[in-house]
Amino acid sequence: MQQETVAVEQGLLYERVAAHIEELIERGTLRPGDRIPSVRRLARQQSVSIATVLQAYLELENRGIIEARPQSGHYVRARRAPLPPEPRAARACTTTSRPSIESMVAKLYGAGRDPSIVPLGAGFLDPDLLPTERINRSASLIARSAGGAGVSYDLPPGLLALRRQIARRSIEWGCALSADDIVTTVGAAEALHLCLRAATRPGDTVAVESPAYYGLLRLLASLNMRVIEIPSHPRTGMDLAALAEAMGRHRIRAVMAIPNFNNPLGSLMPDEAKEELVEMLGRREIPLIEDDIYGDLHFGDERPRPAKAFDKRGLVMLCSSFSKTLAPGYRVGWAAPGIFREEVEQLKFAQSVATATLPQMAVADFLDNGGYDHHLRALRRKLAAQVERVSEAVAAYFPPGTRISRPAGGFLLWVELPPGTSAHLLFERALARGISIAPGPLFSAKQRFSGYIRLSCGHPWSELFDHAIRTLGKLCAECAG
Amino acid sequence: MQQETVAVEQGLLYERVAAHIEELIERGTLRPGDRIPSVRRLARQQSVSIATVLQAYLELENRGIIEARPQSGHYVRARRAPLPPEPRAARACTTTSRPSIESMVAKLYGAGRDPSIVPLGAGFLDPDLLPTERINRSASLIARSAGGAGVSYDLPPGLLALRRQIARRSIEWGCALSADDIVTTVGAAEALHLCLRAATRPGDTVAVESPAYYGLLRLLASLNMRVIEIPSHPRTGMDLAALAEAMGRHRIRAVMAIPNFNNPLGSLMPDEAKEELVEMLGRREIPLIEDDIYGDLHFGDERPRPAKAFDKRGLVMLCSSFSKTLAPGYRVGWAAPGIFREEVEQLKFAQSVATATLPQMAVADFLDNGGYDHHLRALRRKLAAQVERVSEAVAAYFPPGTRISRPAGGFLLWVELPPGTSAHLLFERALARGISIAPGPLFSAKQRFSGYIRLSCGHPWSELFDHAIRTLGKLCAECAG
C-alpha cells in the first residue's frame, strides 16, 4: 500500500505540470504551432524532475494537445480540420420487430479477436488503459490469502464487501443505494439479462433507443422479445415525445436505455429528461432497465446521475459493471433492480448460481484501496483525447457530407456517412483491408442506419489508426451508391 | 513445481502404508475391535517415518476404518449396525406440472450460509476437501503473470487451454471430445441453462428424473417450462419404460438427467441403459441434456462413461463443471452441446458475454500441472468414507422403517423416513435445532417425496455430525404422522 501512495503522488505531480502547460495553451499564451518550453527548462522552472516533465509531455501528447517533432522539441498541435456537423437522429418507426443481427456480430467479434486487425469495431478498451497490473496484483494477493473463501460459492446477492463499495460510490451519483439493494452479476450483460427476465415475459414488447447497442438487441432476440425503436438524438438521447407516442400505440412492458454516454451515440440525456422519463414510465408502471456502464467515463467535470437517481417507486433497474473501467475479463457487474430485487436474485441463482468469488474480491479491494478515482481521472482524459484524435482524423479523411457525433463521455463515435454510402459494404471492404468497424445496421432490429458506422476509440492513438482512418475515408468513396 | 512432485510422492508413501493396513483388515488378519500395530512399530516394520505412519492412520481414521482410543492406540472399527434397506423408487406420474419450490430453497441456502448450522442440507463440499491452497496459489501466480490477458474478455467458446484439457480428459470417459466441441460457462448451472434454452422454447415439456435435483427444477421454472417426472431407481436411475410411456403421452422436447451419481439418489445408470436412453431419444430427435458434475467422484475403480459416450447424432448436450472437484467459487463449467454448439455459443454471448478469464486460466493450469488425478483419488476415498459414516449413523440413530440409498459415487445420501414421517416438519424442526437437511419435496415439481430427505456428506466426519444425526433420529419420531 505504501508503494500505491507514492504512485498516486507522482501521478499528481506530472498532472500538475501538464495542467500548467494546458492552461498556457487555453489562455492563448501558447498558440497552435508554438514551440513549448524544453524539458530541461520546464523542469528547472517548475522545480520538478526531468522524468516528471517527460511524463507530463507524454500525457499531453497522448491527449493530442502537443506533438513531438523529432530533433526539434514539442509543439502545440494544430487542429487538423474543423469537425463536420453531428449525425442526424433516426426517424420514428411505428412497428415492432424481432432483431436478427447474429452474422454481423459474429464477424465483428471475430475481427476483435484477430490482433492483426485495426480495432475500430468492437467496443473493447486496450488493457494498457486499464490498471491491469495493479488489479491483477490485487487478485494475486487475495488468491494467496483468501483460503477457503476464494474457492467457496459466493451466493446471491453476492459479495458484501463489493456491494458496500458500490453503495458507497452511488452516493456521488445521487442514488444512495444500500448494499441490500444490489445483486452482483457476471458483468453488466448478465445484469441486463436478469432484469429483463424479471420484468418481462417472452413475446413482450420492449422499447429501446434507436440506434440501440447491439448487445441489447441480441439479448432481446435471444429471449424472443419484440422491439420498438425510439429515435434518439446524438446529443440528448431518447426522444421522449416519440416514446410517449409509442406507448400509446404499443403495449410496452419495459424500456431499455443507456442514458449516460449512449452506445453508439455517446449522447447524454439531460437530468430533466431523465426525470421526465422516470415519471412517464412510473405513471404506467413500466420498468426502466438502465445500462450505466459508461457513466464513470464523463469528459466533463461532473459524473452524470443515472435515471435511477430520480426513481421514487423502485421501477428503475440500474445495471452496470467494471468492464469499461477496470477489467472486462473479471466479469464483475451488478444490478440494483428496485422492487424486482428478489426475483433477480432468484433468477441469478437459477441461471449461474453465483458470480466468481476471487474477481469480486479483487474489484472490491481495488475500489477500497486501489485509487479507483485517480485511475478514472486519468482514463477519462485519455479517452477524451482518443475520441478527439479519431474525430479529427475522420474530419480530415472522410468525404464531404460526413457527420460525426460529439460524445460527452465513453469512447464511441457515431459517424453518418455521406448520403448513399453503404455502411455494410464499407464494413466488408474495410475488413478485407484489415480494419474493423461496426456497421450501422447492427444497431437496429430493422437494420436501419445503413449509412452509419460506429468507431471505437478504445485504443491509444497511433499512426496505425491515422492510416486506418485515411483508408476508411478512401473506401467511403468506393462504397457510395 | 518441484514442491508439487515431492508432495505427490509423500502422498503415495502414506497411501501405501494405509493400503497395507486396509488389506490386513480385508483379509481378516485384523478384525473389528483388534488393536493395530503401534505407530512406532509399523514405522520400523515398513521402513518409513513416524510422520508417514501417523498420516496413514489419520487417513484410515477419517475413512472410518480404524479409530483412535485415547491412551490406548488404534483399533479396527466395528460397523455400528447393518445398513437398512434402500429407499423405494417413485411411482410413475402421468401429468406435467410447473415447479414452485422457491421458499424451501431459500431456507436451505440461508442455512448453508450460516456457519453455526450443521451442514447436512446444501450439496456443498468443505473447502478442506478441495485443493484450495494449491489452486489459489495457481490463480495467484497466473494473476501476477497474465498481464493484459488476465483482464481482457475471453470470448465464447472460451479459453482454448481449458477446452483442450477437458477434451484430453474426455478420452478417459469414452467421449473423445475435441476442444472445438466445448463452450466454457459460469459453472454447470449456466451450461444447463444455455443448453436448455438452445434446445427448447418456453412452455415446452421437459422430462426429468424423479426425484430431480432442485436446481434443475428451479431452472425449468424460471424458463416457464412444463415438467414430467420419470421415476428413478435409487441404484440404476431413470426408468426407461416409464420414459417411453411418457413420450407416448406427452410431447417431450428434451430430457434432463444426471446418469452418473444422481443428485439426490446417488444412482448410477448402467452403460446399457445409457445406450438405450440415447437411442430411444435419438429416434425421436429429442435432445438429452446430461449433467455429469459428479462423474469424477466414483467410489468404484472406473470412471463411468456419460451417456454422451453413446451419442452418434450430436443430440446429447453434456454439461459439467469443476465445482464439485476443485473450486465452486471459481465458477468454471462447460458444455459440449453437440449439434447445438453454435446456438449455445451465441446464447452465452447474449447472456453473460464471457466467463471470467483468470479462474479459467487457473483451472486449466491445475488440470495441466496440479495433480488433478491424484487429488481426485484422495477426494473419492474421503467422500466414500464420509458417505459410509453418515449411512452408519443414520442406520444407528434413525427409527426402524428408515431406508437409505447406496450411492456409488458423489456425496449425497437419499433417506426414506419411516412411513408417515413428514420430511418438511423434520426440516423445520431440525433447522430450529441448528441442523440443515434437504427435505424430499424440494426434489419434485409436484412436491412428492414428503417422506424423504437428502443428507449431504460433503464435510469431514466429526462428533458434530454424529450428534446432529442422533438428534435427527430423535426428531423423526416427533414428526411421525
From TrEMBL, chains A, B:
SMART domains, A to Z: HTH_GNTR
Q: Which CDD domains match?
A: AAT_like, WHTH_GntR
Domain annotation HTH gntR-type: ranges: 11-79
SUPFAM superfamilies, sorted: PLP-dependent transferases, Winged helix' DNA-binding domain
Picking any one GO molecular function of the record gives: transaminase activity
InterPro entries for this protein = Aminotransferase_I/II_large, HTH_trans_reg/aminotransferase, PyrdxlP-dep_Trfase, PyrdxlP-dep_Trfase_major, PyrdxlP-dep_Trfase_small, Tscrpt_reg_HTH_GntR, WH-like_DNA-bd_sf, WH_DNA-bd_sf
Keyword list, A-Z: Aminotransferase, DNA-binding, Pyridoxal phosphate, Transcription, Transcription regulation, Transferase
Q: Name one Pfam family in it.
A: GntR
Family listed = In the C-terminal section; belongs to the class-I pyridoxal-phosphate-dependent aminotransferase family.
PANTHER family from the UniProt entry: HTH-TYPE TRANSCRIPTIONAL REGULATORY PROTEIN GABR (PTHR46577), TRANSCRIPTIONAL REGULATORY PROTEIN (PTHR46577:SF2)
Its recorded name reads PLP-dependent aminotransferase family protein
| Native organism taxonomy | Bacteria, Pseudomonadati, Myxococcota, Polyangia, Polyangiales
